[in-house]
Please model this.
Amino acid sequence: MPLPEIIHIDRGGSFSRTVTQDGSAMDLSAATKIELEFYDTPGAPIIAFDTDADPGNFDNDLSNGSVKFVWTAATFDSVDTTLVESGRTRQQHFARIVVYTATHTDGYMVPDQFVAEFWR
Model:
């Protein structure tokens, strides 16, 4: 099992994920929007970011399938107690990337979901 992506909510950082198809990086140049969701229950994200509403949180190289998420200390302020419960120093949640295109107007959920571990 791959290691979780570590996110320190009290300071900035970044991580990258490469979207693949049949073992090769997928060209995402046709994407109209990329979304990153952190969740516990499928369909109910705790918090979500997308390239339209939150462009400063992404530094993507879409032609190479690379989705890079960037955050600052203030990024998670509105949900920090949901991401890391009171009295804890870290907590894990699932994460997924959703790609929107002209053909996938409701979004294509990338099947390679992963775990993000939030640290306080």
Observations:
- The mean pLDDT is 95.
- The beta strands are 5-8, 13-18, 20-21, 24-25, 33-41, 44-50, 66-71, 90-100, 108-109, 114-119.
- The radius of gyration is 14 Å.
